[in-house]
Amino acid sequence: MTSEPASSRPTFRVAAQTGDALGESPLWHPADGHLYWLDLALARLHRMDSEGKVETRRIDRPPPLGAIVAGEGAGRLVLSASDGLWRYDWAADGMEPLCHPEVHRSGIGYNDAKLDRWGRLWIGTSDLAERDPRGALWCWAPGSPPVLADSGFTVVNGPAFSPAGDVLYLSDSVGRRILAYDLAPDIVGLSNRRVFAEMAIDEGYPDGLTVDADGGVWVAHWDGWRITRFGPDGERGLVIPLPVPRLTSLAFGGQGLAVLFATSARLELTTPLLEAAPLSGSLFALQTGFVGIAEKTFGG
Question: Would the pTM of this model clear 0.90, i.e. be above it?
Answer without folding.
Answer: yes
